[in-house]
Every structure is written in structure tokens, then in C-alpha cells.
Design goal:
Blueprint (H helix, E strand, L loop, with lengths): L19 H4 L18 E6 L7 H12 L5 E5 L4 E6 L2 H9 L3 E3 L2 E7 L13 E9 L8 H11 L1 E5 L11 E9 L7 E5 L6 E8 L23 H5 L1
Antiparallel strand pairs: 1-3, 1-5, 2-3, 4-5, 6-8, 6-10, 7-8, 9-10
């Protein structure tokens, strides 16, 4: 038998009633959740690329960052999702909470592994990113302002300010959880005066993987944009 070949009967025999053997419920055996189980040190990721990701390459690229002493294991789940096993406890937290991650310039989103979900039900739409907001008046370089801006871009995780809740410098630095289905914002318009004066404040993003300059979204490049504008230009 050729490896990978399979015959689907459900579609072909879909009109038939379930037999007694098919309808009787099986409980199965869930993975153990004891404190030392490997399952608690796992996460699942997806590489947003038209090309299949290379397991060895991914391990070499991000394994030393996530688990610098012991590394990681990676299993290809097909069509660019991957199961990561972390050989250091802190590695799982780093992979999920830090980022954005990339491999070969392509976005890699890592999320918690939900054993109650089917693989195809797992969503890979949120990634943490750091951004810098420029041209803010000094008086607006605060934690509160950063939270407002961060919630406009995505969902605020952290604002890089001192113990007093303020920052002094050329920009205010904010970490957000970003939804890649939305376009990246080029900036925000801030109210800065009593007479409804406004100031355009450009936003720059740190260590972004490849993104589309046509629609402004992460997860694909211009040539792969679903708008089809690139093909029309050619």
C-alpha cells in the first residue's frame, strides 16, 4: 500500500444511516496531565508561507531562542502547522508571549495547544508585536496614553514606561496582541490641545516579518495578496 493513500467513505456512503458499531459512543483515553507530562510543555504554531516549512530549519532558527540550553523538538503536522515540545519550562511561555516570530521572513504564530480542538479548528490570528509611536507631546508619553493607542492597534499587553508611568524620549514603546486579519496602522491621530487641535503620530513596528504593502496585512506578501491587485498590475 502506498503511504499517504486513504479512501473516504463518509462522502460516498453519506446517505446511509449509521450502523450500530458507528453510532455506539467510545470514550477514548485522554492524555495524562500529571505535573511532569510532556503535554504541558507543548504549543502549536503555524508558518504563513506558500512553501512548506523545514522542521530542522525551524528548530535551528527559533529553538535556541526559546530554549537556549536544551532546545526544542518540532513535529510537522502538515500544511505548515507544527507541534513544538519545549525542553525547558520557560521556553513555552517565551514562544507564546514574545514575538513576533519569523522563519525565512515568513510569519510564525505560536499559540497554546488546546487538546479539546480539532487541528483544523485552531485559529492562528493573534501575535504579539512591539510598536513605537513618534511625535507625541512629552505630556502624553504616559502609560495611560500607551494603553489607549495599543487598544486602537490591537490589545495592549504592556507599555514601556518607568515606575511613575511616564517615558521620555523620541517615542513611546507599546506591546500589543495584534490580529493579523486587520491592516497595520500607519499612525494615530491624537488630540493635543484645548481647541481640538490634533497631531499625526506615526507608528513604527519592531522586527516585523514579511507583510503585504498592498493591503497592509501580515501573513502574506504582495504577490500573494488575495485582492489580486498584484496580478492586475502584471
Amino acid at each position: 500500500m502506498v503511504k499517504g493513500m486513504a479512501t473516504e467513505l463518509e462522502g460516498k456512503l453519506g446517505g446511509l444511516k449509521l450502523s450500530e458499531a458507528e453510532s455506539s459512543v467510545l470514550k477514548g483515553s485522554w492524555k495524562k496531565k500529571d505535573g511532569g507530562s510532556e503535554g504541558e510543555l507543548q504549543a502549536v504554531g503555524k508558518l504563513f508561507s506558500e512553501k512548506p516549512g523545514n522542521v530542522k530549519g525551524i528548530v535551528n532558527a527559533v529553538g535556541n531562542i526559546w530554549c537556549p540550553r536544551r532546545g526544542i523538538r518540532c513535529r510537522d503536522l502538515g500544511d505548515n502547522p507544527f507541534l513544538f515540545t519545549f525542553l525547558q519550562p520557560a521556553g513555552r511561555r517565551t514562544a507564546i508571549e514574545d514575538g513576533p516570530w519569523e522563519f525565512g521572513g515568513d510569519l510564525l504564530i505560536v499559540r497554546e495547544f488546546d487538546e479539546n480542538c480539532l487541528l483544523e479548528e485552531l485559529e492562528f490570528v493573534l501575535t504579539p508585536i512591539w510598536l513605537r509611536v513618534f511625535k507625541l507631546p512629552i505630556g502624553l508619553m504616559t502609560t495611560e496614553t500607551g494603553e489607549e493607542i495599543g487598544n486602537r492597534v490591537g490589545r495592549t499587553i504592556e507599555v514601556d514606561t518607568d515606575e511613575g508611568g511616564s517615558a521620555i524620549g523620541k517615542y513611546l514603546r507599546i506591546k500589543v496582541l495584534f490580529d493579523i486579519r486587520k491592516p497595520l496602522l500607519r499612525g494615530v491621530t491624537m488630540e493635543i490641545g484645548p481647541n481640538e487641535q490634533t497631531q499625526w503620530c506615526p507608528v513604527k513596528y519592531e522586527f516585523l516579518p514579511n507583510f503585504c504593502y498592498i493591503c497592509g496585512r501580515l501573513g502574506h506578501i504582495d504577490q500573494e495578496c488575495p485582492t489580486g491587485i498584484w496580478k492586475e498590475k502584471k
